[in-house]
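Ecto-NOX disulfide-thiol exchanger 1: structure, please.
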Amino acid sequence: MMAAAADGLGSIAIDTTQLNMSVTDPTAWATAMNNLGMVPVGLPGQQLVSDSICVPGFDPSLNMMTGITPINPMIPGLGLVPPPPPTEVAVVKEIIHCKSCTLFPQNPNLPPPSTRERPPGCKTVFVGGLPENATEEIIQEVFEQCGDITAIRKSKKNFCHIRFAEEFMVDKAIYLSGYRMRLGSSTDKKDSGRLHVDFAQARDDFYEWECKQRMRAREERHRRKLEEDRLRPPSPPAIMHYSEHEAALLAEKLKDDSKFSEAITVLLSWIERGEVNRRSANQFYSMVQSANSHVRRLMNEKATHEQEMEEAKENFKNALTGILTQFEQIVAVFNASTRQKAWDHFSKAQRKNIDIWRKHSEELRNAQSEQLMGIRREEEMEMSDDENCDSPTKKMRVDESALAAQAYALKEENDSLRWQLDAYRNEVELLKQEKEQLFRTEENLTKDQQLQFLQQTMQGMQQQLLTIQEELNNKKSELEQAKEEQSHTQALLKVLQEQEINVLTVALVNQDRENNIEKRSQGLKSEKEALLIGIISTFLHVHPFGANIEYLWSYMQQLDSKISANEIEMLLMRLPRMFKQEFTGVGATLEKRWKLCAFEGIKTT
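Here you go.
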């Protein structure tokens, strides 16, 4: 236990001039311990406390022990009071010597002194049980070894409050709780007392703690704000205000494919802001028209990407079919090797390896064929979806390529079944060979048992062959049904096409009849209409490039104020051989104009 205490203060530099308490006189030591109320321990003539753990001389002007360089009090194991040991190790306190007093530890058998709950930011301690003759200088001399003291408030009732500069210094002061303090070498009761050090609640400590908490909260908010600003996505670029110059620049950007996305956002914001008016309507119309022309480019891009995707699918399918054909060739090589002509010349180990390789290649071949069949089924499903989305006449059409793909798939299945038959025949031959070997090697077995075994295997193989033949017949019937359906659908298509042609011809004949009837029924209803036709034809003859309906109406209103533009337009439309309507201009300047074509009609007739 002495060695553990020595380790706690081993880092402290000890001065050569230290105060040691001699215990050569056992009677004097026993008297001093009895006056302090402590049970004397130790043996006569022996030193109870080793020189290595005695506290050296203390100099109050340095606020530290002499012979010690300035140290960081936060480092564990440094300073006057050793750090609290681990909980599983018993705490051993030693005698502390100062210039004016001596501190004796309490009996280790007694329970440790109790303390209250530590207030937040505590820097002040309550010290009770001081000797009556203890002065403020002696208290400062003892507790200044724990750290810098900012204030001491001493009471007349043998207690005081000490405020330290830092919070960790309070823990060192709490370590002195339970020590008995004796002034000098006096045995008077007024010069001794048992110290009780506890946490004290001070308003200054709590205020400083709150200030630190608020400062930390401000720093945390500032840090979070900086983090949010760093992670916040950048704001969108500012959109310029509308002007004729900016509109002209924007129209050029809309025609450029690389700047189209930026320009379309500006156009959208202008329209949403309400920049469209009578004056700027033509410019906005031309820009919207440019945006509409961009649709064709997008559709072309989509078509090219779809074509590339289809080409990639076709290349993958072709590569897969090539791999499958190579697998078929490899399996054919293995099957040829297992026939009797070549099989007899191989050793037993070679036969085993060839059999293993054949089975492995057949499994891979089947997996590849299933994958290819899955791709073809997906294509058939896509084709069926396209047919469902088409018109009723297109739904009845059957794609010949799909039927060819089905026929090719059935042919491949037929080939695979034929290869399986060859494999089963080889197995039968192997069984026959094993039968011969059994006759040679196993003479104990009777001929009846061997025949029964072989008959059972042959029956199983025959059943498998029957099932395979049934599957082949089913596939052939499916092929015939598909061909019949194809021929039937082609006949239906021809009938429907003839019906559609007949319906169209009847509709055209009826429409021509109705047009002739309407033309015959049209004519001049009154003398006023004839007068109007003469005036309008004269006006349009003067204007060879034609005139719009508003111009005609303004001229006719000078002659007849009750006439309307709608009546004039209806009258012109009733006489298509005299008047015709043409469109002039481009884009926003597009305009309808009426021209006189009566002379052209006379020439043609």
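Notes: The radius of gyration is 57 Å.
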